[in-house]
Amino acid sequence: MDIEPIRKTVTVQRAPAEAFKIWTDGIGGWWPAIGHSMGEERVVNVIFEPKLDGRVYEVWDDGTEHDWARVLAFEPPHRFVIAWHPNPERPAPTEVEVRFTAEGTGTRLDLEHRAWERLGEQGREVRESYDSGWPVTLANYAEAAG
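The structure corresponding to this sequence follows.
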């Protein structure tokens, strides 16, 4: 059972290295926690550990950490791939790859969220929720990138 990956693109007026750093080091400042996290209003920070096998996680107001992902590939300032698994009730992680490509005076960010088949029967339904969620997330990122 193949399920089509989600593909989204946004362009920002930053050099690739800056755009990459805003996503990774700056994620806590722009990620839309309400509606796009486990803790919602309890989230006080989001952390992306910028290294191979690093964690992506949210920190709640009580100091607890809740993992979203593990870094599978980390190639600044060009791309990263994460094993995305923010819901421990789901059977396996999906994958999110984000590529940063110089385009004119800015950077084109291409996001691909794939491997929905790993979720079995839930795969198509979960994919649909992310297909409508990624545009909100990317809009927040683009606003933070100016």
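Strands lie at 6-12, 43-48, 55-60, 65-75, 79-84, 94-103, 106-114.
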